[in-house]
Design goal:
Layout (H helix, E strand, L loop, with lengths): L19 H23 L10 H6 L9 H19 L11 H11 L2 H13 L5 E7 L5 E7 L10 E7 L6 H4 L3 H8 L5 H14 L3
Antiparallel strand pairs: 1-2, 1-3
Helix pairs in contact: 1-3, 4-8
Bound molecules: manganese (III) ion.
Length: 207
């Protein structure tokens, strides 16, 4: 059985940028639903519990036919939300740190330039999905978008940073104003957590 990761902040810990009611609903209703649906699907193929969630998502195309779409929807939803929530919090730094910071500056010239491009990718997701900063197989940083709960891991890319732009991530606070949500989201990206997750993922995930 997979489990929800414990949030490293309280529900109101991201206010005023993201409200307590949004975080609580997103985590206890949406994230929980993805988790429960994933676990229900895996009951049919218990051997998959021996794999990590990263391996299951990476190998999404090889999953048994009867749970293929459950893995795409709920496995992706579970893993993407783990990343999304764990990358938020109160940051000591307002700009990227460590190797992530270095690679962002090298690739996009400056953090400000990266911020512009990433914001425009997030705004440009049509319907529900995510914008990502990923590391591709050649170790290059790239900005990408995915639809629904698709995950870069299924495309041979290591997730570095993500923003959930499904309406449930911001509708309670901002109605349909995605631009306002994105602008506020930048204030609650925890750059130390982003760096920590990157170091962990690039050593543990085998693409
Ligand atoms: Mn969501």
């Amino acid at each position: 059985m997979f489990e929800l990761p414990k949030l490293p902040y309280s529900y109101d810990g991201l206010e005023p940028h993201i409200s307590a009611v949004t975080i609580e609903t997103h985590y206890t209703k949406h994230h929980q639903h993805y988790l429960d649906s994933l676990n229900k699907a895996l009951e049919k193929h218990k051997y998959l519990y021996k794999k990590s969630i990263e391996e299951i998502i990476r190998d999404a195309e090889d999953m048994p036919d009867d749970i293929y779409w459950d893995i795409r929807k709920f496995g992706g939803g579970y893993y993407n939300h783990n990343l999304y929530f764990l990358m938020l919090g109160k940051s000591k730094n307002s700009t990227p740190v460590g190797d992530v910071g270095k690679k962002i500056s090298e690739t996009f010239e400056s953090f400000e330039e990266f911020k512009k491009l990433f914001t425009s990718a997030a705004l440009g997701v049509f319907g529900s999905g995510y914008a990502w900063l990923v590391e591709d197989k050649n170790k290059n940083f790239r900005i990408t978008k995915t639809k629904n709960q698709d995950c870069p891991l299924s495309y041979g890319q290591i997730p570095v940073l993500c923003i959930d732009v499904w309406e449930h991530a911001y509708y309670l606070d901002r109605k349909n104003k995605r631009a306002e949500y994105i602008e506020n989201w930048w204030n609650v990206v925890n750059w130390e957590s982003v760096e920590e997750l990157y170091q962990k993922n690039k050593t543990t995930i085998k693409l």
